[in-house]
């Protein structure tokens, strides 16, 4: 499979961002086996978000690695510190991901407070150089102009998918600039 380009998916709560990404993943997983990618889905809602239930089915478990990165998941993990959790559950998985994998960060601003900056730095690096390792990135967020979290996107993401429900003025202003 070829490299999957980077994409930012932006919209307000309940605008359809996660459903859109879930459907894109399922479209890939329904291809013949040789064309399927592996997906690493990092979300503070992995355990609870019903939208993601289809991705958790047994038939997809060899293609989907879902990691809950929320406060409770990090706190209840076997790791002593949030940084240790990040190193072993996030960074190590990405560092060892097979070529043509897609890394999904679903609203990482909501991750455990001790790892949000680490995730942001890793995500920004993936946007810049992930393609050299054949890794794609999907970044789901609420705000197109999200400061340090979205600054790299305008330079590195091939695709911008916008759900303009409550942000149409922000999107128009962003596109005008």
Folded structure, characterized:
With 177 residues, the chain is α/β, with parallel strands linked by helices. It contains 6 helices and 6 strands; from the N terminus they run βαββααβαβαβα. It has a 6-stranded parallel β-sheet, with helices on both faces. Strand 4 (102-106), helix 4 (116-129) and strand 5 (136-141) form a beta-alpha-beta unit. The chain is globular and about 45 Å long. The mean pLDDT is 90.
Structural class: alpha/beta
The beta-strand count equals 6
Element-level helix/strand string: EHEEHHEHEHEH
Indicate the radius of gyration in whole angstroms: 16 Å
Distance between the termini: 35 Å
| Percent of sequence in beta strands | 15-25%
Spatial arrangement of strands, main beta sheet: 3-2-4-5-1-6
Helix amount: 25-40%
Give the uncertain stretches in residue-range form.
Answer: none
Largest sheet: 6 strands, parallel
Number of helices: 6
Average of the residue pLDDT scores:
90
Coarse shape: globular
């Amino acid at each position: 499979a070829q490299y999957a380009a980077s994409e930012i998916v932006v919209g307000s709560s309940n605008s359809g961002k996660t459903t859109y990404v879930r459907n894109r993943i399922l479209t890939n997983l329904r291809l013949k086996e040789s064309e399927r990618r592996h997906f690493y889905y990092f979300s503070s809602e992995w355990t609870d978000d019903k939208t993601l239930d289809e991705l958790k089915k047994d038939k997809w478990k060899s293609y989907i690695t879902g990691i809950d990165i929320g406060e409770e998941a990090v706190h209840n993990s076997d790791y002593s510190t949030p940084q240790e959790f990040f190193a072993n559950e996030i960074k190590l998985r990405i560092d060892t991901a097979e070529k043509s994998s897609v890394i999904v960060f679903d609203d990482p601003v909501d991750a455990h407070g001790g790892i949000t900056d680490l995730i942001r730095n890793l995500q920004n690096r993936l946007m810049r150089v992930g393609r050299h390792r054949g890794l794609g990135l999907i970044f789901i967020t609420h705000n197109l102009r999200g400061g340090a979290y979205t600054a790299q996107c305008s330079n590195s993401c091939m695709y911008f998918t916008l759900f303009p429900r409550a942000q149409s003025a922000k999107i128009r202003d962003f596109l005008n600039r």
